[in-house]
Specification:
Layout (H helix, E strand, L loop, with lengths): L2 H13 L8 H12 L6 E4 L2 E4 L1 H13 L3 E5 L2 E5 L7 H4 L2 E2 L4 E2 L4 E2 L4 E2 L3 E2 L4 E2 L4 E2 L4 E2 L4 E2 L4 E2 L4 E2 L12 E2 L4 E2 L4 E2 L4 E2 L4 E2 L4 E2 L5 E3 L6 E3 L2 E2 L3 E12 L2 E13 L6 H11 L5
Amino acid sequence: MDISKIQQDIMAIWEDRSLLDTRKEVINQVIDLLDQGKIRVASKDKGQWIVHEWIKKAILLYFPASQMETIDMKPFEFHDKIPLKTNYAAQQVRVVPHAIARKGSFLEPGVILMPSYTNIGAYIGSNTMVDTWATVGSCAQIGANVHLSGGVGIGGVLEPLQAAPVIIEDGCFLGSRCIVVEGVRVEQEAVLGANVVLTASTKIIDVTGDSPVEMKGIVPSRSVVIPGTYNKSFPAGDYQVPCALIIGKRKASTDLKTSLNDTLREFNVSV
């Protein structure tokens, strides 16, 4: 399989949409490769995450190249352009009704999907739990041994093409109703308490030292994060604006479950 040739073909179709009807098999091949986990929208190389824009282009091309069809899964019926994933037993994935994952997403062995939604282009690592009514958006990259608690919203991204997907690295825990969107990266083994909302513009403030340290777009490894507010002046007066507060560090431990439980108790983090 020549990935570079497939990439060249996708770029040619992207530049000349008249090729859509005659080159559908190339687009379908990319979706199949995504579905099998042989390629992914973003990958880590020497500690840096790299977004493969040509794969995002292939996903975008998949929509106009596909026809609306009835998906009949008695007693349910859907009407869409993208098929649903199937054959979970062979993939060693547990899928609880009514969990849905679209074709073109990839689930490593040991993933558990409670009633939830996983969109095309997403990648979910081994032994990760996607809890009830959590959503994993298009192209989001979720690591291994992650817990996405009930109602967590992981944003998707297809356009603009240069935009990075949300990345949740290995061993992270996201509490109930957390929202992570706009390409925010949560580094390895971090803990987000319930209701933390992270966008590209959200202030993430480390308050563990003598003075606050502000950052945006990234939660450092093993950070323990809770929702917070800060005061901001507007023409109409001063108001509290949402932010996220880093209140401590999760202890490095070979037993991550013990480490997590200890962390939640120590910092009194709601999940």
